[in-house]
């Protein structure tokens, strides 16, 4: 539960998600990150900023989680392949939730229906919750939860 009204949600995306819309539409759908941003902006009340970012760089993603702590911003995180092995990202995600801020792990696909290496997440154990398998709606549901729980 966040105590202050939410004015900004950080929506952070890990490696290769910048390629959404141009590759593997049968797996990830045909929308790109601009489409995702537009969907989220349309789903939140005025006065709530959707700050959507993507990086292929693990260090940059960790820095953004530190920024979330310092600015008390709730986070929606699609860690992409880092989900499955990055203990550095896990430690940074734990800093967010230990600061009392929500961090919702999201996935476009349901990793449990895919290759076995995708079945384990090193992030889930420190996340507030996990939403997977609903395409871009996974993100919308995560933002909706963050805004409802902050009321
Ligand atoms: O389903 C998800 O959102 C994933 O986080 C996507 C990751 C994958 O490693 C996770 O297991 C599940 C992969 C993102 C790769 O993004 C691409 C986008 C377009 C084309 C190819 C890859």
From TrEMBL:
Marked site (Transition state stabilizer) residue numbers: 23
Catalytic activity, reaction form: 3-dehydroquinate = 3-dehydroshikimate + H2O
Gene Ontology MF annotations: 3-dehydroquinate dehydratase activity
Record keywords, A-Z: Amino-acid biosynthesis, Aromatic amino acid biosynthesis, Lyase
Keyword Repeat applies: no
Gene Ontology BP terms: amino acid biosynthetic process; aromatic amino acid family biosynthetic process; chorismate biosynthetic process; quinate catabolic process
Enzyme Commission identifier(s): 4.2.1.10
Name used for this protein in its record: 3-dehydroquinate dehydratase
Native species: Microterricola gilva
Lineage: Bacteria, Bacillati, Actinomycetota, Actinomycetes, Micrococcales
Primary gene name: aroQ
């Amino acid at each position: 539960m966040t105590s202050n009204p939410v004015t900004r949600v950080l929506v952070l995306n890990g490696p290769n998600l910048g390629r959404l819309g141009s590759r593997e539409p049968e797996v990830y759908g045909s929308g790109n990150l601009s489409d995702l941003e537009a969907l989220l902006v349309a789903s939140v009340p005025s006065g709530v900023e959707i700050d959507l970012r993507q990086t292929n760089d693990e260090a940059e993603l960790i820095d953004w989680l530190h920024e979330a702590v310092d600015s008390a911003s709730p986070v929606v995180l699609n860690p992409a392949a880092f989900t499955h092995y990055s203990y550095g990202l896990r430690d940074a995600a734990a800093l967010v939730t230990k600061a009392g801020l929500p961090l919702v792990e999201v996935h476009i696909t349901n990793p449990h229906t895919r290759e076995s290496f995708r079945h384990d997440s090193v992030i889930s154990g420190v996340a507030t919750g996990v939403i997977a398998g609903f395409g871009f709606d996974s993100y919308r549901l995560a933002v909706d939860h963050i805004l409802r729980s902050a009321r």
